[in-house]
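Still learning. Any example?
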Amino acid sequence: MGDPRGFLRYERSGPQRRPVELRVRDWREVYEPFPAEELAHQALRCMDCGIPFCHEGCPLGNLIPEWNDLVGRDLPAEASERLHATNNFPEVTGRLCPAPCEGSCVLGIGAEPVAIKQVELEIAEWAAGAGLTPVLASRPTGKRVVVVGSGPAGLAAAQQLTRAGHEVVVVERAERIGGLLRYGVPEFKLEKAVIDRRLAQMQAEGTILRTRTIVGPDSAEVDGAAAPGATVLPAQSLLDEYDAVVLAIGSTRPRDLEVPGRELAGVHVAMDYLKGANLACEGSIAEAPISARAKDVVILGGGDTGADCLGTVHRQGARSVRQLEILPSRRRRARRPTRGRPGRWSCAARPRTRRAASGSTRSRRASSSATRRERCRRSGPCVSSGSSRPGGRASSPSPALRSSSSASSCSSRSASRAPSARAWSPSSAARSTAGATSRWTRRT
């Protein structure tokens, strides 16, 4: 351990969010750079438990105590090596993962858990700033593998198979590689340049990427989820040409609502809406086919997808937004008792930290009235746009959103803009008994 008393010396902290009035007018990521000294303090809060439950909480089995210790001792290269040993894309999980590891942190039983997700992201960004070196196979196996689907699962499988020495081809039906990461996650949560730099590493390692390709029978039709001009590749040809086939296709079928009024114009599923917004943001199309500008919007669902839609409609300039969620708010939920002690959380429960989705326009200290979440209740059938809106007070975003000249469009920003990277350099100051500190400088 870098500091055995670190969890007593330092409090949990996280990065600041950019001001609401700025971030709703562009598509950049929400969070500000994290101070270098504070990063070391967060890593030193790890207690290096004898039985680290964060391993169990992490679906990847990340070696969390090990790279926390290396960050606290100012060893970025070693921390990056331990992180990438179990995680192909830590720059993605460091941004999007709900962090069940923090819910399993033993420190979270009686205090705030370790900021594991933030430490993971900072290590990944340091590695990107230092250069993602291709990992080449020691010798080729002569085997050919095709991966159908280029989402996070397909890309991770392709990278591991390439590093094992196989010849790997990834086929994707959309315009670009990335799957849900590219077309389902908005730019303000995951800048697409983050994906592109990892794809460049995979191509340098030998992975072949093919887009606009649909796998199916000869009579397969090109559906709406595929890119215009996509070609159909017979499934039998994959079995004939390759030694193995990996199916990582995911699912684009929405969970629909069979209620009266579903067929009315203006009712859309989330993925149709988000993909169009992302295509416009990357410059593939001039304008999103579904836009919320100057409209009254209702979002059904308060999960991650609902938060993505929420942030997107705010940036498109919606007149008002109302989000409905079937579950009560988290602060009203009864805490799960454990070990016979009422009011205490178990190690596997979610951490006792207040989280706000990056799509929200609420600031850290004061909640704005831009979004109002209500408990979903049974209501009457949908009505056409000609009738009045249902009762209730719908909140409005900043007046600046209503002006078409105030909101910056995605296409005005260069699609090839590289994300900000962090450079980690050892501190020249003397190391104290509480552990070494690091100074990070941001490079663009």
